Amino acid sequence: MPIKLALPLGGAIAAAWGFLIYQARQMTHLPMADMWMPPSELSQWLPGDFAWVFAMWAVMMAAMMLPSILPMLAAFSRYCQRDANADPWLSLWFSGGYLAVWIAFSVALTGLQWLFHGLHWLSPMMENRQPYLAAGILFTAGVYQFTPFKNACLQHCRTPLGFLLHAWRPGSVGALRMGVHHGTTCLGCCWAQMLIMFAVGVMNLTGMLLITLLVFLEKWPPIDSKKLSYISGSLFLLWGGVCLF
């Protein structure tokens, strides 16, 4: 991957994780009186509360999902090098389209968090306190790992050359559209895994790291993705069952 692409992408990933680590430390070290907390009643949420929760989810999606785009982005960058006159920033346009999908998904995650706080299923520290919510999310994520749609989306992510051959669009707008296309398919692959953050605690750094690692490994070509999906799906189902007892 060209250094001019690796530097901004690596910087964005590092900045996103740095923000999440800082926020997690704030939550564990600041007195509760000095800490912002989501309102516990649906009617008490102000635009600033929605904006803050949305920003948190958007940064979390960038931190967790940008590493998984690396194999596709490396293939896209090599493909662009066939044309000596191609815009050198096409890969960033592609990355922007991909990230835009996950930022849009953050709107839905913000809405869910608003609802879960209103139902008192999340604590003011954004930790899960409803075992049936955790079990339901884990069962959903576990079952989804076995579905044909999950496997089809995952195979798209694992075969970047095939995607580029069939979906190639020229120019910066074309790269942006391809990024959105790839991001939409990636969302179809990983949306249920992102919901697990509601089960383990929205700002649980260990949960973020493990889900990021799972998503990355599923898309890494040397790994048997179907076997990994089935193993992780089985573990999610077992974990969900444990939450009920």
Cα end-to-end separation: 48 Å
- Assign the structural class, choosing from mainly alpha, mainly beta, alpha/beta, alpha+beta, or little secondary structure: mainly alpha
Overall, the morphology is: globular
> So what's the oligomer here?
single chain
What's the β-strand tally?
Answer: 0
Summary keywords:
245 residues; mainly alpha; 10 helices
What does this entry show, briefly?
The chain has 245 residues and is mainly α. 75% of the residues lie in helices and 0% in strands. It has helices spanning 3-29, 47-65, 70-80, 90-118, 131-144, 148-158, 160-167, 171-200, 205-219, 225-243.
What does this protein structure show overall?
With 245 residues, this protein is an all-alpha fold. The chain is 75% helix and 0% strand. It has one domain (3-243). It contains ten helices and no strands. α2 packs across α4 and α3 (70-80) runs antiparallel to α4 (90-118). The longest helix has 30 residues, at 171-200.
SSE blueprint and pairings:
Blueprint: H1 3-29, H2 47-65, H3 70-80, H4 90-118, H5 131-144, H6 148-158, H7 160-167, H8 171-200, H9 205-219, H10 225-243
